[in-house]
Amino acid sequence: MIFGTDSLTNQTLNRIMEQAVESSPKNVSKEVLEKLDYLIGNALRDQDVENRLPQIQREIESSLQVGV
User: Fold this and answer.
1) What does each C-alpha distance from 28 to 11, 25, 45, 49 come to in angstroms?
2) Fewer CB within 10 Å: N-end or C-end of the chain?
3) d(CA 68, CA 7)
């Protein structure tokens, strides 16, 4: 896990999303993708993305390690 100065930022997320190709990774469950969508959607709605990205990153990494 990477946190601190190397953690996910708004700029990094924007760059990733701009270069992304719409697809579903084979090794990521539908539940994990739905959780990610929910967490990012809430952060965007509340205009608090920058503050929530580290927590979102931790939750997703944890979900991927245990399989949801």
Assistant:
1) 24, 6, 25, 23
2) N
3) 21
